[in-house]
Specification:
By secondary structure, the chain is α/β, with parallel strands linked by helices. It has eleven helices and seven strands. It folds into two domains: 166 residues, 3-Layer(aba) Sandwich (Rossmann fold), CATH 3.40.50; 67 residues. The strands form two sheets. The protein has a four-stranded parallel sheet, sandwiched between helices. A three-stranded mixed sheet has the order 5-6-7.
Length: 263
Amino acid sequence: MMQNESKFDLLLQTLRLYRKIAIAFSGGVDSTLLLYAALKALGPENVTTLCARSTLNSKTSVTGSRMVFQKNFPHAAGMVEIEVSPLSWQDFVANDKDRCYYCKKRMYSTLQETSIAAGCTILADGTNCDDQKEGRPGLRAVLELQVITPLADVGLTKPEVRRLARKFSLSNFDLPSNSCLATRIPENSPITEMTLRVVELAEEFLHNLGFWGCRVRVQQACTIVEVQKKDIAVFVEPQTREKVRLRFLELQLAPVVLSLDGR
């Protein structure tokens, strides 16, 4: 833990280099820890919280991010929510291997415009050290736009971020990782509003059954369901399987295949 605390101290020092900063906030544990650190380093009057909203966000994730902000940062200035329209971006809708790059480039460009108008000197996001090892196309956009990544810059890994979030009593320290609904659609299959909403309804149904952190991935031949490893045994119980089968049949998502790898 001493190493984690040393990295956090370095994070505070790094953030103090800036007069006024904007944080790209998603409600996930990474951006929550970053926002916590920025408020501690600079004070609420010098931190602007920006959150992009679009059709790619489920209602559950939108509600969740608002609750995380309200619960953890009651004394911060309000969160600024900015609407973007990714389904109007043809390069994004085509859904090729660079989909995340196109989306991040446009979305963060919009956040930067808002941050500049708010008098901020820089935009920061919650990319951690492990994210940089995964070859994410969106990180190219982050670099091109000169968005800073303080967590990664001080060497904080995913497990370290969660341990620090727990130490500081951040409410989402154990929240399963999340991503936009477009990640459930296979590469080169066009992204449509209908597909996004069907996926959202399917995942909402699984959430209501207790399968938090699940994924419903729409393939041509089948629908692949991913649940946390600890939930696999419950999912395959006959009563649960039948509930899922019937609901997914209503959503025209049959046949359903369960990933045995778990999340």
